[in-house]
Amino acid sequence: MVASRNYADFASEATFEIKKCDLHRLEEGPSTTAVMTREEGLHYYKTMQTIRRMELKSDQLYKQKIIRGFCHLYDGQEACCVGIEAAIKPTDHVITAYRAHGFTYARGVPVREILAELTGRKGGCVKGKGGSMHMYTKNFYGGNGIVGAQVPLGAGIALACKYFGKNEICLTLYGDGAANQGQIFETYNMAALWKLPCIFICENNRYGMGTSVERAAASTDYYRRGDFIPGFRVDGMDILCVREAAKFAADYCRSGKGPIVMELQTYRYHGHSMSDPGISYRTREEIQEVRSKSDPITLLKDRMVNNNLASIEELKEIDVAVRKEIEEAAQFATTDPEPPLEELGNHIYFNEPPFEVRGPNQWIRYKSVS
Amino acid sequence: IRLSAPAAIQVTVRDALNQALDEELERDERVFLLGEEVAQYDGAYKISRGLWKKYGDKRVIDTPISEMGFTGIAVGAAMAGLRPVCEFMTFNFSMQAIDQVINSAAKTCYMSAGSIAVPIVFRGPNGASAGVAAQHSQCFAAWYGHCPGLKVVSPWSSEDAKGLLKASIRDDNPVVMLENELLYGVPFEMSEQAQSKDFIVPIGKAKIERQGTHVTLVSHSRPVGHCLEAAAVLAKEGVECEVINLRTIRPMDIETVEASVVKTNHLVTVEGGWPQFGVGAEICARIMEGSAFNYLDAPAVRVTGADVPMPYAKILEDNCIPQVKDIIFAVKKALNI
Question: What residues does the Transketolase-like pyrimidine-binding domain cover (chain B) (predicted)?
């Protein structure tokens, strides 16, 4: 380690003023000050940087055709998943849509298992069976490919939380595009009726694929769309705003008051997916402006350095360590073998005696093991 | 002195289903029922009569008219460790929610390499009723039977209904149970064994309801009864039909059908659903592919619903569903008599 300063030179924590949230049916919102310790800051920084570099590595692997199919990248939105994870417990539940790599990592899946799942190898977190949009781990229900379908699922998980009575909650994420899905309004209704401990989180990155929010929604106040459900709007590029917001929402749900809606205003640098250059419906200038003024990692870095929580050198060392970790993970993901053909038939059912599954013709059969 | 079978009683399909739900709700506190009118109305078809009173709001939940929403909620609850029974008032309305049944429920165990189970039962009346017209009469056996990851069961008798519902609730996988509204009020004999709280009809096993030697009749749900009636008529003419009640659409017990065809050399399939891509079509294809093909003395014959949306007028409706006379005609065609 070549840090030029002793850790004792740094402050142990700092207090930050953060933006006030727009409120809907709420007398008060999240705190407008946030305390961040040095350890927290370093952890947030490393986590966000890891996600950033992991996504950029995925971009690279996709262009080399080592990753196939759909690949929806999260770079730009890191403060959302890291801020949320910082506010909740591992025993809480999270479900999101297909732009899921960041949450998959935040919920505890190692980078190598994420990349190996993207490259379709047996060391992938779901053995290569799911791919980019279908990664799971304990208390993380994916990764869901059908826009909006994850929202009723999340309310169902919240119903189970209430049923079991262990004070757990479910965070159910969806995008600005999905926010217009009918099943979300059906879910709002039931969640409110039954007071389900569900935080509905709209990650508004301004575009549903190539359609800007103004062209898709008669009301772009996504935090109000729950109508009878209280909601608030948050600066999703500021990790402390996200953390305080998620803490506020989690406390609200745990108190038994029912669901709440949280809109995170965020941005994705990449297009909708790897097949979208992302510049036909928005300008390069806009992307560049967000990068230079609102990048979540830069914002955190500046805060830490300016408040004596870390040095630039120290953060650079973290960058180096992160790059190394990503390289090693990518190495694993490109050298690990593909799943054996036998895997094709497995996991059709759960807890089932082995049976046979038909292949492309009647003579090709695969064994199916649970 | 008792001359009849020990303690067998007559039980309607409705009561058999009700018993199954009651027993499984009592047995496992993770089991709960949700759907439209299942609680305070006692069930649109009274299948859940008395259950809300007994178990309360937590275990028996009335939903708003939001199929896609409440089906998704039920699936999510199953993913998080509960064991929901999700009722569709009829399976016609399940089309609104079919994405949750297939993409969220059926496929998740596979996509997650077995790390997430979805122990859910989707149940409700399926297929034609009486005079409910086109939008309320569709049979979904072929639609759900098409999809890997699902189990699909189709009871006929009270024993089937009770045993299959209990088996479905205890199964750790998503099960679609296709009931039949016209059968709800029909009484069947239930043996003492079938009345026991642990009585299960295994999923994936067909039942031979009647032994025969001249022709194999394969069916599921209400048409099984029509097959038995046809068999009784044909027996008087010296034709002995073997009647197989599939009980399960997926995974289909084709082995029982094959063994029967090897014995009888003739096959007639009978179903209420439309012919194209139907259950009968699948049976015929599999028989062709398997060991029984060489034992067929004639092509297999399918008896199905007419290939039209269900009309309303009684004379039209009656001619759109397979009747006993259609089955008899098909058997005679197969046997060339």
Answer: 11-186
